User: Which sequence fits this backbone?
């Protein structure tokens, strides 16, 4: 039987790590205590904007064996790549993203793909391995790099490894955690985590296996070296043979359990440190993005030597709170906390993802609030991620399938321009008015705003890699900070309230004169009593400053 003993002998990652920096509980210290300097800002992803795609819902191909079957696929994405980035920096009709995160595309029995059956095979509903290689080639022509959702915590119970492990004498038995009987403790949110083998058709002998999320997703056992070897090999396959540029690592805080302690264990940190070192040996420029759905303190302990960046959930929550409440304080507090926990920009920013209520719904349909939240996100340090459809204001609430409906390309309420067949899931009713076709070329649209935000960020190094310094405004409803790099300085100013604010009354004068506003045709002042005459309601500004 597999035991829950400690792992040992794992490599310790990058040379810049301060190995003596450990919290008293044995976990790594926050990233800011382990990494100094700005070397991490030299990597390609610090200049990237990522687009987060659920392949099933993005675009059904119009040609080839999977054409017009109602399910999005890889060839469909290729057909729509010019929408994301047409490869010509001088055009303004594409989004201009330079990174794509694909949700799971490996063989799976489910619609979402987070229960993998074959880690080396593209799901047959999405295409073939050759289709994926063609997708990579087309992305690279446009300057786009692609990262894959890699589900390492668990496999599908239909995976051949698990099916073999049902036999107590199999060499695959220890690929999963099996016990002779239920130990009597449950999961971190009170769920059942121990499951009988006969739940999947095996002969019941009273033994149980561990599956954190449900019995159809048995957890892989990383205390077995053969599991680590297999995962290292399949990761090398996607980087070397298939051309992927990195991975988004799903549910990684749960990788290695220590009895009833099922998240953020020292063994998990150690395994990830070894994994990151291995990936670097395969591709020095590989990107790893961690999903650690936890508070900022926990997230920061993974960053740097275990993964390059991680999603900053608390920042996303506080950003939405600040805009919803019309108060700067939630963001001010969180930005100070982030400065304590991370080196500059060593995290990923996002508003909402595929497991969360869409941001427009969070704002009860208020598009001005959603636009302001996006403006703040793109002015912040960190690597920005956009969930597909966010850039046109798609709205949705739980359950999860409702968050992943077809991309709304046209006003056709039956197909949304996503397919000519019956879509795998019906588009949202607001497709008639909320769609790409209606917003393309409309200077007042959400799509136009996102195009401008990405273009301005791409053209302004200080917004990607510059330092951030909070600025006192004297107004509870106005958030302000500067971004500075190599002598270039920008004041980022956000009116969170539904009312106009007299910008000349704000305490933002730092001895610099406003030269131009990058996002709007806003009237600037030339006096020392503030950089901008009027802050319109729910509006953000990026103001270039001169001495």
Assistant:
């Amino acid at each position: 039987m597999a035991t829950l003993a400690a792992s040992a002998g794992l490599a310790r990652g990058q040379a810049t790590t301060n190995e003596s920096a450990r919290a008293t509980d044995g976990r790594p210290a926050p990233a800011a205590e382990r990494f100094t300097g700005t070397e991490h800002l030299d990597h390609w992803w610090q200049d990237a904007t990522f687009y987060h795609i659920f392949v099933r819902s993005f675009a059904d191909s119009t040609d080839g064996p999977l054409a017009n079957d109602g399910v999005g696929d890889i060839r469909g994405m290729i057909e729509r790549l010019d929408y994301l980035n047409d490869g010509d920096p001088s055009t303004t009709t594409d989004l201009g993203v330079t990174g794509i995160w694909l949700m799971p595309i490996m063989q799976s029995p489910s619609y979402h793909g987070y229960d993998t059956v074959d880690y080396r095979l593209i799901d047959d509903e999405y295409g073939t391995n050759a289709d994926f290689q063609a997708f990579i080639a087309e992305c690279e022509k446009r300057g786009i790099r692609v990262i894959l959702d890699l589900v390492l915590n668990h496999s599908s119970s239909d995976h051949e490894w698990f099916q073999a492990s049902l036999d107590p004498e199999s060499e695959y038995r220890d690929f999963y955690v099996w016990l002779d009987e239920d130990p009597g403790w449950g999961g971190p949110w009170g769920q059942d985590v121990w499951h009988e083998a006969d739940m999947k058709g095996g002969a019941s002998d009273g033994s149980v296996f561990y599956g954190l999320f449900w019995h159809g997703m048995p957890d892989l056992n990383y205390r077995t070296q053969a599991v680590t070897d297999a995962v290292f090999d399949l990761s090398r396959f996607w980087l070397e043979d298939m051309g992927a540029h990195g991975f988004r690592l799903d549910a990684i805080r749960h990788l290695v359990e220590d009895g009833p302690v099922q998240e953020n264990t020292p063994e998990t940190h150690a395994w990830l440190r070894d994994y990151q070192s291995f990936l670097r040996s395969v591709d020095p420029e590989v990107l790893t993005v961690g999903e650690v759905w936890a508070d900022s303190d926990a997230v920061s302990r993974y960053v740097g030597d275990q993964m390059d960046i991680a999603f900053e959930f608390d920042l996303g929550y506080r950003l939405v709170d600040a805009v919803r409440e019309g108060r700067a304080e939630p963001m001010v507090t969180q930005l100070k906390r982030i400065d304590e926990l991370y080196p500059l920009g060593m995290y990923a920013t996002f508003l909402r993802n595929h497991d969360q209520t869409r941001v427009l719904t969070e704002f009860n349909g208020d598009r001005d609030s959603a636009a302001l939240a996006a403006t703040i996100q793109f002015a912040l340090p960190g690597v920005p991620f956009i969930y597909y459809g966010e850039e046109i204001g798609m709205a949705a609430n739980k359950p999860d399938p409702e968050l992943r409906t077809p991309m709304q390309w046209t006003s056709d309420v039956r197909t949304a321009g996503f397919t000519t067949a019956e879509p795998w899931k019906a588009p949202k009713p607001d497709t008639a008015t909320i769609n790409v076709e209606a917003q393309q070329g409309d200077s007042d649209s959400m799509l136009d705003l996102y195009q401008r935000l990405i273009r301005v960020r791409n053209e302004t190094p200080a917004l990607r890699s510059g330092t951030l310094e909070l600025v006192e405004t004297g107004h509870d409803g106005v958030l302000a900070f500067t971004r500075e790099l190599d002598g270039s300085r920008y004041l980022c100013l956000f009116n969170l309230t539904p009312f106009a604010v007299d910008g000349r009354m704000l305490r933002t004068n730092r001895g610099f004169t406003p030269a131009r506003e990058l996002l709007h045709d806003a009237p600037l002042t030339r006096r020392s009593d503030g950089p901008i005459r009027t802050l319109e309601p729910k509006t953000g500004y990026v103001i270039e400053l001169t001495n």
